[in-house]
Amino acid sequence: MSEPKPPTPTPGDTYKGWLFKWTNYIKGYQRRWFVLSNGLLSYYRTQAEMGHTCRGTINLATANIAVEDSCNFVISNGGAQIYHLKASSEVERQRWITALELAKANAANMQDESGGGCRNSELQSTLRTLNSKVEDLSTCNDLIVKHGSALQRSLSELEGLRVGADMGEKIRQVTERATLFRITSNAMINACRDFLSLAQSHSKRWQKSLLSERDQRIRLEETLEQLAKQHNHLERAFRGATVQPSFSNPSLGSKDGPSGKGDASDEDDDNEFFDAMEDPAEFITVPADPKYHRRSGSNIMSLASSAERTRIPDKPNYYLNLWSIMKNCIGKELSKIPMPVNFNEPLSMLQRLSEDLEYYELLDKAAKCHNSLEQMCYVAAFTVSSYSTTVHRTGKPFNPLLGETFELDRLRECGYRSLCEQVSHHPPAAAHHAFSEKGWTLRQEITLASKFRGKYLSIMPLGSIQCLFDKSNNHYSWKKVTTTVHNIIVGKLWIDQSGEIDVVNHKTGDRCHLKFAPYSYFSRDVPRKVTGVVTDKDGKAHYVLSGTWDEKMEFSRIMQSSKGENGTEGKQRTVYQTLKAKEIWKKNPLPEGAENMYYFSSLALTLNEPEEGVAPTDSRRRPDQRLMEEGHWDEANAEKQRLEEKQRFARRERERESVKAESDISSTHQDIYQPLWFKKIEEVASGETLHIYKGGYWEAKEQGVWDMCPEIF
Fold it and tell me: Which has the closest alpha carbon to 60: 45, 80, 75?
């Protein structure tokens, strides 16, 4: 039976529930009853054991909590205890993470108030003493100013007096005020001496503590790197000693699974095994009655022939240790960290965004559909197709400069035109607009948030993508999933896409829920799997989609649905009877020699090809990117630094102008930059705030007038 859902955790609650705990490579994940109370996480084999046998406890006050994917998370306390845990769903995992973070915060506060009270008390006492000395200095300073002014007045009056009866009185006043000034000055000197002595004594202690912390950090970095290498070695040894599963791509054999660091103290005599590594499918499909099947035409798409280039210079074999740079970036936002071009590919983020149009024919076909549910299938396949170019693309695209643009004019060959512009620098945001003569418009605004987690890098695209069809007025919107780059420290880099996407038709209420399954070494599923269900506004399912984001997608029409048996963890699965699946999208093969050309697709190879007539802000004109493509990486790094400094200077100038303009209104200010070709609106149908194309670019190109463009290169 399915377990009752526990309530949402609140501060102070005792939180309990079932989780799957990793034990070892023989037994895998085992189901355990976990109890979170008073800052301690304990677990038992069963609920009945709670009264007499605890199998393990970890103190959350000093623990690290890390999310691995939609259901998995890890709790560790510095190496002695490491719990690899798996929840039954992403919602359940988030409930546990919320409860654990609340408990950790409360435990840490209690520890600070007790165990750390002595150290905190000493620091507070020192700060109070220093504040007292600063106040003494301030008082002495006021007195020196007061008595100094009085002394100056007396001396001025003395100079103007004649020798006579008043002379003695004035000399007495001057002497008295000079004495006061001397006393105050001595007090000031003594207060300065006390403050300096106190500051110097504590400065030595603080400097010693700082050096100790720095040495400890270096040791931790070295230990982390060594552990990663040992982890990688153990994984390879394990895979060499077991039967390799079959993969659609041999490179997947080097991917990561959970490490064998589980606490196995309670697993010696436990023979019960739950296969929790493989998420149960929310639905399964079976063939419908043959009478429903009809023959259909081929769905194979062809590439438009073009005369663009088919090669770029091979990537030079320059070695640079990625870990040597990334180890200082753990937990940081990478868009604010300058990186050498050695980790880049010779394309900007604007060009990568334009690559979403490689399979534009899916939108052409969608525009011809009379049925909105069938149209939804093509739009959903288009969202999946945009990830197919990323499977081997471990190089980082260039961060666009503010005001940088990229046009992709394929009106003659493919019927569409596309324009991107970098509309914000912090946070970095790019706006994209594409329109087609076939009756569709695509627009998106993407902001990338990225975090380095030590062994992997997470890239979270924020923002919305929208597609509008002229004939039907159907308006679709969706968001992108999380991209993860694995093996940052050691091993071969590889890319994974995971998460869920809801494609919504705001006119009809139709919806397609797509699920990108995270890769798992232990799963029996095909790698990079994507599944989806298309439903109408009433929630009735009409189509199912399945495939992989790096190869192809198929769709099937649902003829009948029913509730099936309960799967793993009590989930009831829906059984869909469908017609024979039809291929809706298939990835184009990579060009010959792609492995030496950054694994670029045929379209990507053309994107940085020089073109006449483009705007002076176009990515093709970016000098550091051009130098990198030509193999001059040292020169490219120098040019990249020059461009970044120029951009920083331009921003400081805008901030000065903003402060000057707002000095009479407010003490706060913002960057006053306004995009050239896009404007920000609140879109009514989706409720999203985004930049949309305001016009003028293609007219300026036709006239050859670019006076309005900033000099960014």
Answer: 75
